[in-house]
Design brief:
Aminopeptidase; Acyl_CoA_acyltransferase; acyltransferase; GNAT family N-acetyltransferase; Bact_Acetyltransf; 5-stranded mixed beta sheet; GNAT_dom; alpha+beta
């Protein structure tokens, strides 16, 4: 089976939005308004400064995606690339899909001279934490705080 990782295109918006709905439910039992989410995904394509999506295809069928956004670091005079909204369809999990997407993002980040890759992971998601550690990522020493508006 062949696996291809490519930059997402507007034709992928429906899949990306549907996968984000599924991810929100699977990981946090949150229901997200699909119409709002589709507008949010489309906004990334409308404003490339927001980031970009990558899509993985196995034998020509889309099986996963992720979003990359940017965070400027004045300390390092460069961008951190944040990996977000990772989703792999159930039947393709544990088959190297995320690893392939991660490697594609890493290559693009190095070419763009980003200063590093970051991502969030649920504190209880031991499987994902193991995957990220296996790729050479390290748990950082920061806690995350937020104030929703």
């Amino acid at each position: 089976m062949s696996l291809l990782v490519r930059a997402a295109q507007r034709g992928d918006i429906a899949n990306i939005a549907a996968w984000n709905v599924a991810m929100a439910w699977e990981t946090e039992q949150k229901r997200i308004d699909p119409a709002l989410l589709e507008r949010g995904v489309s906004a990334v394509f409308d404003e490339p400064r927001r980031g970009f999506y990558m899509v993985a295809e196995r034998d020509g069928m889309p099986v996963g995606c992720l979003l990359v956004t940017y965070e400027w670091s004045d300390w390092r005079c460069g961008d951190f690339w944040w990996i977000q909204s990772v989703y792999v369809v159930a039947e393709a999990r544990r088959g190297g899909v995320f690893r392939s997407m991660y490697e594609a993002v890493m290559q693009r980040a190095q070419e763009a001279r980003a200063v590093g890759l970051r991502l969030y992971v649920e504190t209880e998601n031991q499987r994902a934490q193991g995957t990220y550690a296996g790729l050479g990522m390290e748990r950082c020493h920061y806690f995350m705080y937020e104030a929703m508006l």
